[in-house]
Design brief:
56% of the residues lie in helices and 5% in strands. By secondary structure, the protein is mainly α. InterPro entries: DinB/YfiT-like, DUF1572.
Length: 170
């Protein structure tokens, strides 16, 4: 077994499970729900998804050969709540994830110890992947939390329902 290739397989599955939580949450939300935010300091699901996509496209495009913070990225604009529809939100969301998965699919064992840069700071490919996994899981957790707040008793759980652990184990 090749450790680097096994890691790439495992991490792709982890990214897919994180994405799946976001997908299942977004699917439960209405056009209005995706723009809801608690207050001026909070982000909507649409804004978080837009930010994640912008990050993914920047970080994973030309991953091995250019800094992950691309000159064309406008990070501040990612935090403007201007996605007009749920359909557009899903298109933006998918663009980011597709960029990530295309890049991960092209990596090989020997790439794991190569150095890549994010904002001029060197990382091994392994470190860069782990950095982004933590970032994406953090934001998808926010999306899920917002979705649960909005849907309240109409929330369709994404894991084992409360009080059903024993039943699940059977």
């Amino acid at each position: 077994m090749n450790l680097g290739n096994e890691y790439l397989k495992v991490v792709q599955e982890r990214f897919k499970s994180v994405k799946d939580l976001g997908d299942k949450t977004i699917n439960q939300l209405s056009e209005d729900d995706i723009h809801w935010h608690l207050n001026g300091a909070s982000n909507s699901v649409a804004v978080i998804a837009k930010h994640l996509s912008g990050n993914m496209v920047s970080r994973w495009s030309n991953f091995l050969n250019s800094d992950g913070e691309k000159s064309y990225r406008n990070r501040d604009q990612e935090f403007e709540n201007d996605i007009p529809s749920k359909q557009e939100l899903i298109a933006v969301w998918e663009k980011g994830w597709n960029t990530l998965f295309e890049t991960l699919n092209g990596l090989e064992d020997q790439d794991m110890i190569k150095t890549v840069y994010i904002r001029g700071e060197g990382h091994t490919v392994l470190e860069a992947i782990e950095r982004q996994m933590a970032h994406y899981a953090y934001h998808v957790g926010q999306i899920v939390y917002i979705g649960k707040q909005i849907k309240d008793e109409n929330w369709e759980t994404l894991s084992i329902p409360k009080g059903k652990s024993e039943e699940y184990l059977q």
